[in-house]
């Protein structure tokens, strides 16, 4: 069983080798060839019909790890740990996943700080927790078992004039994003603005 160090937004590896985000496909294959006695049963997954439209994947089936490479530039963009029972993982030198330690979704979330809520794949019954360049998958029987995320929203309402109209400007602050829209009830007008402040009328 592989014993690997997780470096968020950077790499997964040990003292002998590491899979680093941005590394070329050829370099990853070279590592696999050099350590073929340790890393076995590697699958190469790609689309024969549209090879440039889908990621090229090196699936380390024995270790429960997938390396996803961009189809165009063939550089590593995501490291997915889809079976935590097949690999030992540590962070800052301390194991958070091993045969003796089975982390929960909440523990992984708190340790690395997911930038987005997890995604449940009903067909595969997998809950995916995504970070920048790193993904963990958990087997769940239903969406009801998945953790529920609370989104904190701050609402700011103010008045301003747009041409001859006085409208209400409502700004929603949702964690690190901001959504603005304008409402004029008197004229039945709504102006929706995106992050680039481009507006459309409804």
TrEMBL record:
Listed GO biological process terms: Golgi to plasma membrane protein transport
Pfam families for this protein: PHAF1 (PF03676)
Source superkingdom: Eukaryota
InterPro entries in the cross-refs: PHAF1 (IPR005373), PHAF1/BROMI (IPR039156)
GO CC term, one of those recorded: trans-Golgi network
Protein family membership: Belongs to the PHAF1 family.
The protein, known as: UPF0183 protein C16orf70 homolog
Provenance organism: Notothenia coriiceps
Gene name, Swiss-Prot/TrEMBL: LOC104946849
